């Protein structure tokens, strides 16, 4: 699916109209993560949307760290977020920005509201304030501190700023309307005391602006034309607009909302992902089982696959749950087209070709990809001893089993036809070796006797290969809605989400595999070398996704 073949979504239409009617001359968007965790697949939807619209309309997209809460934010997250946005293939406009860059200006604007009689210092405790706020059905009541004079408010706010008040002792509130049907307009808090250092501003401040007092004003400072956020901010929009109207801001941004991404079998909440990390259910934010961009990258997802997925799911204003199969389809589709092929035997069984000269090795050539001529051919060392997959041999089998059977033939992929003559067993009766003969006249052609083998199996040289460890991942959760319906999502963690195979044997070329470069291990799935674990001698390969395309099949039913 390409953008050309897809009808425009509501935001594309809206921007087109804004441009056509001259309401906006230059499209400017922003992606505003809070640096309190790593980015996940939900964020990718927002990134593709914001950067995508800027690209489409010849505008700009800023990266702005929405860093108003020093308690939960860290520099580590800032760095990881930048890496992930770049990796997805997007370039932000100029330097990365921080809401905290504007703390001085926001402070001045708070003073502006106080002087205009539109903000006051309120001494109600959090508990009392809740009581005064009212409910969805009942209006709130005015705070007893609402009518303080401008002078008194200025003096008290100054004290707040100077650290002369305790946390929770008072706050600065906008004076709007305690009877407003929208609770966000009932004198919302715009500044709180937090005696805490900030990762950008150090200990300069002990009062911090609220999200609502920050976001729209930063949009205005940056000249954002379309401030796009998720639907839960719809109720904040009247406050967004009130602040823009009542402050001497340099531009008039407007907020638009779209539906968040929800994926089945997945959680996309930073808080929950953090819990998985902190409680050791996974091995860090970049664990290949995590739906974080850094985890998916390690797992072998490509930026293209994620961007295609975001394109496929579209942008709407109604909440729905997307099938994780769509994401799997998207990576499989990209890797099928672009990943070089390779062979890797997961559970090796030794094969000896009794009529192949001892000590001899020849180099066979195999295509890098069935249709991509630009991917280089591979060299496959072939000799007297090989490994095949344990499950690709049986002493006896019915006709449906199209692999190697005692007394029958099979073709070795990209190589010769072999014939199984004998099995060697250990004391426990397990097959440890298969003695075969090889038809050296069968390379790239049918055997001379006209008896064609039924199947093709993969193999590697037993002498000249790379030993490796293979990690097979399954879904992190075994429940399609791990965080719905009052469930504890931790109870839904799939206990079999990782299987580690050691002593696997891969074709020699994979010794040079770069981390995160995807390969199709023929007959097996898509894999990439892990960027964290493994050594030069024994690399670790992560299974990105299996070969089977269950989602597309489902769609075609
Ligand atoms: P979380 O619930 O994971 O903590 P958040 O909204 O608090 O998410 P932010 O760092 O504030 O996280 O998000 C940055 C931007 O990404 C916001 O504009 C937010 O709306 C958007 N975003 C976050 N999660 C999703 C999602 N699941 N789908 C689409 N956009 C999302
Ligand atoms: Mg947020």
From TrEMBL:
It is found in: Cytoplasm. Belongs to the class-I aminoacyl-tRNA synthetase family. ATP binds at residues 34-36, 40-46, 230, 260-261, 268-270. Residues 26-335 form the Glutamyl/glutaminyl-tRNA synthetase class Ib catalytic domain. Its EC number is 6.1.1.18. Keywords: Aminoacyl-tRNA synthetase, ATP-binding, Cytoplasm, Ligase, Nucleotide-binding, Protein biosynthesis. A motif ('HIGH' region) lies at residues 33-43. It catalyses: tRNA(Gln) + L-glutamine + ATP = L-glutaminyl-tRNA(Gln) + AMP + diphosphate. This is Glutamine--tRNA ligase. L-glutamine binds at residues 66, 211. PROSITE patterns: AA_TRNA_LIGASE_I. Residues 456-530 form the tRNA synthetases class I (E and Q) anti-codon binding domain. It comes from the Bacteria. GO terms for molecular function: ligase activity. Residues 339-439 form the Glutamyl/glutaminyl-tRNA synthetase class Ib anti-codon binding domain. Monomer.
